[in-house]
Amino acid sequence: MSTWWMWLLILSGPVVFYFYGKKHGISAGADWFAVKGGHVDVYELTKVQIVGTSGGLSWDLELADRKGTELSINLREIQANRDLWDLVYNGIAHSVNRGAKTNPKALDKLKLR
């Protein structure tokens, strides 16, 4: 029983990673995309922009839908999950084709032209 501290150290790892994983809170469905701040309807977007430095390490994707909900997320974070990115990208492409406002950087980096 003199090694109780070792068990405490071993069991603390999963607890730390559990809460670290809940930090981002990114999810998507067939027609919506959500982060902890709210959700947007990806097939009803009115604004799709990429802002940030030209180096590409800190590009943020900014989305706004018809209801006025706006979200901003790091582009690398959302593209890290391929299935989630596919759902969101399809909605972005649909919205841009229907007239959502974009900037040149979004058109180039997301290949929306």
UniProtKB/TrEMBL annotation:
The keyword Transmembrane helix applies. The chain crosses the membrane at residues 6-21. Keywords: Membrane, Transmembrane, Transmembrane helix. This is PH (Pleckstrin Homology) domain-containing protein. The lineage of its organism: Bacteria, Bacillati, Actinomycetota, Actinomycetes, Pseudonocardiales.
